[in-house]
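Collaborator request log, item 7. Partner lab (contact: R.S.) asked for a structural prediction of Caspase 3, apoptosis-related cysteine peptidase b to inform their binding assays.
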Amino acid sequence: RPVKDCFIAVLSSHGEDGCVFGADGKPVRLSQIFTYFDNECMENTAKLFFIQACRGGGLDDGVEVDSVDGAEENFSLDLLVPIDTAVMYATAPYAAFTHPCGSVFLQTFCKLLEEDGNRNMELTRLMTRLCHRVAYTFQAKGRDFSGKRQMPCLLSRMTREV
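Returned to partner:
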């Protein structure tokens, strides 16, 4: 079934956890951006944000962990995301990689949309496929980054299927 009311934003910039950097190099809090879409006009509109930006300076070795230090601090920031909003981050709180052809995250997303059947897939299923592709098909190369991986992260406050 087609989605009638949907807003999609793609933010591609440098960043840190909780912010992206504007053209002037100054940080812009994501929570501030989200507040612009938490209003009566956007109330019945599904809002999707795709954020291609680093969320920290560390690199992801792909190691499984039981918990992340500081997770409690970040959780409260996630509650500032409006209802009926999904935020797809290029990475968990680590550095995000780019390829000479562009963002690994955004390039993979575009390739998924070009494949048969994926355009009609429910959002969370499509985002799960995106996470899988980035996590399992990309591995950084080079002296400093060899073997490092990137794992996208979906935060959803959706109350309906999109």
